[in-house]
Amino acid sequence: MRAAAVTSAGDLMRWVELPGAEPARVYVHGLGATSPAYFAEAAVHPLLAGRRSLLIDLLGHGISDRPTDFDYTLESHADTLAAALESAGVAGAEFVAHSMGGSVAIVLAARHPKLVSRLVLIDANLDPLQPRADLGGSSGIAHYSEEEFLSGGWAEVRDRVGPHWWSTMRLAGREGLYRSAAHLVRGTRPTMRELLVDLSVPRTFLLPAADDSLTGIESLEAAGVTVTRVPDCGHNIMLDNPEGFARAAAAGLA
């Protein structure tokens, strides 16, 4: 396990690193997840193996520290991730990033362009969302106030998301989980979609073949974003269909 201090208070971001060739490949998890659990199988798949690979956990998640005085905006997540990568001597990396992690990777590429050479986004959030009481992810969490979430709303979310997601979500600091979700729902200005369109690096967006919720595909493709549908999967493409994910990700990284 590797670590780097990424805040003025010395909070540590941690990652699992696999040796290999440069440029490095950075795997970034989604809300309430952890990169080693979500990406270990993918990183060693024959189509993706052989690169120096950092399976990194954002602050508030997984094996990284869980500060309660951190704001957990997408911009702050991106800046602390940049600090960890600079500490690790990473530049011009390829990013494979899921859901909220994809949003963070987009913001990182806009704010710290020297760190990013290519993006493979896995069903990433591109637009602001509406809070919804019936959901368990970012929209469901953001339906609460922070006080409501910390005083018991987290248990309702636990019951809605089920044991699979909760197995990693329970590792997240509750303040970090709530604030990350609330800021993800709020989005950025310009939006993540607008930032993605303006980037000049190669960009691939993976989404489940049966999912028709991604809007504006034509405008993404017109801006040079390759949109690839992966069969036989839901939102967690790399877990639901490892072979299909590896093929699609490898094509995006070629």
Automatic annotation (TrEMBL):
Keyword Hydrolase recorded: yes
Protein keywords: Hydrolase
Domain of life: Bacteria
Domain AB hydrolase-1: 26-129
Record Pfam families: Abhydrolase_1
InterPro entries with a match to the protein in the record: AB_hydrolase_1 (IPR000073), AB_hydrolase_fold (IPR029058), AB_hydrolase_sf (IPR050266)
Gene Ontology molecular function: hydrolase activity
Protein name, entry field: Alpha/beta fold hydrolase
Species annotation: Streptomyces camelliae
